[in-house]
Write a structure and sequence with these properties.
Blueprint lengths: L1 E8 L5 E8 L4 H12 L6 E8 L2 E4 L17 E6 L24 H6 L4 H11 L1 H25 L7 E4 L6 E9 L7 E7 L9 E2 L2 E2 L8 E4 L4 E3 L20
Parallel strand pairs: 1-5
Antiparallel strand pairs: 1-2, 3-4, 3-5, 6-7, 6-12, 7-8, 8-11, 9-10
Helix pairs in contact: 3-4
């Protein structure tokens, strides 16, 4: 009979839910399945069946069956890895940064067929209406970037500003430049007077200015007005402090 068990490993953070096992098959077959899931070889596995709460039973001979221990669907099967050299120890399989990854170059990807890039390239080549829409969107985006650039040249570091967003918020501009993780075009880094922002001045792992937690905000130049905007009393602030998209 097929039963489903939740598998937990002594060295892995990941848990394996509703794994199918043949209850009448020998434990050696179950260990082979666990090996394929976790990488722990059968000879290094010690198995416990968690019946309920703290009630558990150690599984014995590889020739015995799960049914011999009263295994039923929904129970947990705990796998202890006895291998002192297991790859799951310390970081091992829990830290994906330790696993070497294949990175395809842009040139190689560009030559592949059946990719999204290939599909869009062919559509651009063969569909005049799609090509017109793409070119129009590109021109519009370029115009928007040029407009933002023009505005940014009129803004100095240290200037006071108010946000052209709900909330009547004000602050001081501490950064004026490019933030690649936010897309092309200039970005302003603003230290707000109140903690209604969403950053401390960093984005995408790079720090662009320094502010206390939730006192910083990144915005496009078109979303702020520079001028004589002193700090306000709390009673002057609106309740709506929502932040719109850049």
């Amino acid at each position: 009979m097929i039963i489903t068990l939740h598998v937990r490993h002594s060295l892995l953070q990941q848990r394996f839910f509703e794994c199918k096992f043949e209850s009448e098959a020998p434990l050696s077959a179950a260990k082979e399945s666990i090996y394929r899931m976790t990488g722990t070889m059968p000879q290094h596995q010690a198995l416990k069946l968690i019946l309920s709460g703290s009630n558990e039973v150690q599984l014995g001979s590889d020739s015995s069956c799960l049914s011999d221990y009263g295994a039923q669907s929904g129970m947990e099967l705990f796998v202890e890895d006895l291998n002192p050299l297991s790859v799951a120890k310390d970081v091992g399989l829990n830290d994906l940064s330790t696993i070497e990854k294949y990175v395809m170059s842009d040139d190689v990807y560009d030559k592949l067929e059946g990719t999204v890039r290939h599909f869009l390239r062919e559509k651009f080549k063969n569909d005049p209406e799609y090509r017109r829409q793409v070119l129009q969107a590109r021109r519009q985006r370029q115009q928007e970037i040029l407009h933002e650039l023009d505005l940014s040249t009129q803004i100095s570091i240290g200037s006071r500003c108010r946000l052209l967003l709900p909330g009547n918020r004000r602050g001081t501009i501490l950064f004026n430049g490019s933030v690649p993780s936010l897309g092309p075009g200039p970005i302003l880094g603003i230290q707000l007077d109140e903690p209604t922002g969403d950053t401390d001045g960093s984005h995408g792992g790079i720090r662009y200015f320094t502010a206390e937690k939730n006192y910083g905000l990144f915005l496009r130049p078109s979303k702020v007005e520079v001028g004589d905007f002193p700090e306000q009393a709390l009673s002057d602030l609106d309740d709506d402090d929502s932040v719109s998209d850049l």
